[in-house]
């Protein structure tokens, strides 16, 4: 007897081998009807004492087919950022294989191939950067290929064509030593927000960078990731109760995907009140406008940190993430416990998270420690909400100043 069950957006059929009784499964069915049709095939074979076997793949196409199937699996089960990172790694691997072993099958997967890929990644000639790729990046790329290999060896469609997964022990030596964390202060973050309101030429910027200004304001007062702020909708904000609903779909970690309620910090409340007035609940809270392709949040944020004269050690490499570090570090300086800070920022609370009721945490008292905006920063924030071009911004999202 075979049965089906929902796996994410697709269906998996499970059954037992008619002779050995070993558990068997086949996933990836797009609809319940497709899964039911497959059950009919399996049960017909089992009635004859036979087991279903995946159709043979063209030997030369097997590697490319497996890579594409794995990326489909990652997209279904992982976050958007994880999917993007693994896609980059496996596209580089695909390029390496095409250059070294054209029309390769899964049989080419060996430790020697992994070592060759590692050496290929390290060559500056194979990188767009003159200095070549960092050791951390090359290590991650090879780890992602190892993850693909392990998946293929366990997938019904590829298990018979995939060699036993292997790993490179020497990857541990490529991990960069961890440097002490440097985080911005409230004053540093406000100086950066003020700088977001200035073009390199010295003129005030409203419409094109209103998105960056308001996104940075929310990050500074919540500690959320920039990708999460970008996906907040108007309906997530309850100004009357002073609460922000963090939907599970915004979460990066397993724990975050459960969702949570976050109290809104007092300095952020009047900003959100003006951003949400007379707007539809399903609209993005901070809409990207103007020229989206030319409005790079990372580059604009890095320019602002530089203009604000904040030391590069505080924000280099991750200019958006620096606001998240600043939020957590400043609350720590105010005496807020790690447990509360982890809940607010969505970090894993470990085993303690299973034994502590969030209602027992003084979350409201913690966000009350968020400092008010400096006058120079507030001028820019007010400008992003109220000036002529900002009115265009709010009209674009059906809001009112």
Main pleated-sheet profile: 3 strands, antiparallel
Q: Outline, from the CA principal axes?
A: globular
- Portion of residues in beta strands equals 5-15%
Low-confidence stretches: 201-207, 290-295, 387-401
Number of domains: 3
Q: CATH homologous superfamily name of the largest domain?
A: Intergrase catalytic core
CATH topology tier name of the largest domain = hpI Integrase, Chain A
* H/E element sequence: EEEHHHHHHHHEEEHHHHHHHH
How are the strands of the largest sheet arranged?
Answer: 1-2-3
CATH architecture verdict of the largest domain: Orthogonal Bundle
| Rg from alpha-carbon coordinates | 26 Å
Overview of the molecule:
With 401 residues, the chain is mainly α. It folds into three domains: 3-47; 59-174, DNA polymerase, domain 1; 186-396, hpI Integrase, Chain A. It has helices at 32-47, 62-77, 80-100, 111-122, 135-152, 186-196, 210-222, 226-230, 269-276, 297-307, 312-315, 321-333, 338-345, 363-367, 375-386, 388-396; strands spanning 3-7, 10-16, 23-29, 237-238, 243-246, 260-263. A three-stranded antiparallel sheet has the order 1-2-3, covered by helices on one side. Strands 4-5-6 form a three-stranded antiparallel sheet.
């Amino acid at each position: 007897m075979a049965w089906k069950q929902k796996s994410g957006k697709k269906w998996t059929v499970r059954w037992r081998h008619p002779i050995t009784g070993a558990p068997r499964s086949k996933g990836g069915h797009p609809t319940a009807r497709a899964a039911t049709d497959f059950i009919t095939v399996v049960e017909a074979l089992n009635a004859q004492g036979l087991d279903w076997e995946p159709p043979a793949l063209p030997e030369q196409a097997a590697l490319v087919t497996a890579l594409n199937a794995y990326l489909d699996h990652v997209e279904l089960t992982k976050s958007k950022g994880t999917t993007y990172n693994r896609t980059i790694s496996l596209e580089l691997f695909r390029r390496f294989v095409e250059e070294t072993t054209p029309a390769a099958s899964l049989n080419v997967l060996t430790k020697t191939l992994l070592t060759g890929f590692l050496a290929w990644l390290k060559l500056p000639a194979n990188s767009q950067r003159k200095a070549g790729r960092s050791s951390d990046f090359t290590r991650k790329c090879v780890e992602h290929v190892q993850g693909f290999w392990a998946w293929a060896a366990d997938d019904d469609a590829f298990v018979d064509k995939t060699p036993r997964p292997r790993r490179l022990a020497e990857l541990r030596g490529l991990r960069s030593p961890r440097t002490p964390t440097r985080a911005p202060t409230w004053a540093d973050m406000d100086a950066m927000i003020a700088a977001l309101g200035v073009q390199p030429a010295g003129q005030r910027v409203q419409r094109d960078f209103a998105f960056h200004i308001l996104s940075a304001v929310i990050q500074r007062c919540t500690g959320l990731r920039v990708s999460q702020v970008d996906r907040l909708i108007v309906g997530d904000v309850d100004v009357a109760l002073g609460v922000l609903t963090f939907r599970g779909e915004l979460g990066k970690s397993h724990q975050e995907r459960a969702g949570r309620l976050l109290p809104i910090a007092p300095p952020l409340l009047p900003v959100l009140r003006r951003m949400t007035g007379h707007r539809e609940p399903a609209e993005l809270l901070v809409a990207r406008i103007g020229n989206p392709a030319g409005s790079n949040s990372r580059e604009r944020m890095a320019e602002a940190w530089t203009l604000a004269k904040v030391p590069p050690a505080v924000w280099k490499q991750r200019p958006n993430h620096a606001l998240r570090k600043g939020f957590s570090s400043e609350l720590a300086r105010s005496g807020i416990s790690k447990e509360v800070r982890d809940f607010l920022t969505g970090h894993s609370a470990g085993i303690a998270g299973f034994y502590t009721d969030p209602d027992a945490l003084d979350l409201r008292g913690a966000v009350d420690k968020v400092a008010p905006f400096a006058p120079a920063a507030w001028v820019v924030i007010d400008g992003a909400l109220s000036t002529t071009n900002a009115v265009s911004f709010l009209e674009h999202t059906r809001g009112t100043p």
